[in-house]
Specification:
Layout (H helix, E strand, L loop, with lengths): L2 E5 L4 H10 L4 E5 L16 E4 L4 H5 L8 H6 L8 E7 L20 H17 L3 E6 L1 E3 L13 H11 L1 E4 L4 E2 L1 E3 H14 L3 E5 L5 E2 H8 L8 E4 L13 H7 L5 H16 L1
Parallel strand pairs: 1-2, 1-3, 3-4, 4-5, 5-10, 6-9, 7-12
Antiparallel strand pairs: 8-11
Length: 268
């Protein structure tokens, strides 16, 4: 059985991945602060996955001391450990059908920092690196100690509880439920993949559509507010490269079901 060291006890994604992956693999789940305790035993793990992040890495210009992935990589053996780096779709320019070899255009400190880390890890690990450029992940917030930034689902829930949502009929993005992401990551590990891949549903998901699903079990009357923004950051990622490797399907039906289940948890 493959052995995995998962880092990031304080966050949304790490906790969800731990719940799913421990059933499939031999797991160790730790916080970032514990990483130095594993220097001597790190070689026994096949895969290292980091979900922790420093607030300054999100908000400020690149600095090595804010880069958790860089610090973790310093205790790894590129010949023995396979590093799974969770990057972001934000390294690309927002547009339709974004492929892995499309032009990179990071605009925020966060996305610029992700790209810097990508390049460093690629040089260090060579064939033992897996870079996943991930679209918006949605799921129920487990009891986590710290929230560093608001996600789409945070913003939706915050507005819906206040009694209004935005009309987003012309805007679309690319979404994955955290359950589907966990399933995809499981298959990636089982298939022993390397390289750079988009992880997404690979389709236009209009925001008014996903908001309708997420709002299904909200009994509060909602006021819809017209929303016009000069910045239309609509996008979706082309996921064919990864899906063909995994021989998997990632369907709208699955996303809708996961969103309806999430709505029950949010509002019941």
């Amino acid at each position: 059985m493959k052995r995995i060291l998962l880092i990031g006890k304080r966050g949304f994604l790490g906790n969800h991945l731990n719940k799913y992956l421990y059933k499939k693999f031999q797991m160790k789940f730790i916080s970032f602060k514990e990483i130095n305790n594993f220097k001597k035993s790190i070689s026994k793990y096949d895969y290292i996955i980091n979900t922790s992040i420093n607030r300054n890495y999100i908000n400020k210009k690149y600095n090595k001391k804010f880069d958790n992935d860089l610090q973790i990589s310093n205790i790894l053996d590129p010949k023995k450990n396979i590093f799974i780096f969770l990057s972001s779709r934000k390294v690309y320019k927002s547009k339709e059908n974004i492929k892995e070899n499309d032009k990179l255009n990071p605009l925020t400190n966060y996305s610029k920092n992700k790209l810097i880390t990508e390049n460093f890890l690629r040089k260090k690990f060579k064939s033992n690196i897996l870079i996943l450029r991930i679209s918006n992940i949605i799921g129920y917030k487990l009891k986590v100690k710290k929230k560093l930034h608001k996600t789409f689902i945070d913003l939706f829930y915050e507005k819906a509880k206040k009694g209004f949502i935005y009309d987003n009929k012309k805007r679309f993005k690319d979404f994955l439920s955290v359950q589907k992401f966990s399933q995809i990551l499981t298959m990636i590990i089982k298939k022993d993949l390397r390289g750079t891949y988009n992880v997404s549903i690979g389709k236009k998901i209009y925001l008014d559509q996903i908001i309708e699903w997420l709002n299904k079990y909200n009994r509060k009357r909602i006021k819809v507010i017209n929303y016009n923004s000069a910045k239309n950051q609509s996008f979706y990622l082309n996921n064919k490269k990864l899906m063909s490797k995994l021989k998997m399907k990632n369907t709208l039906f699955e996303l809708k079901k996961d969103c309806l289940d999430l709505s029950k948890k949010l509002f019941n």
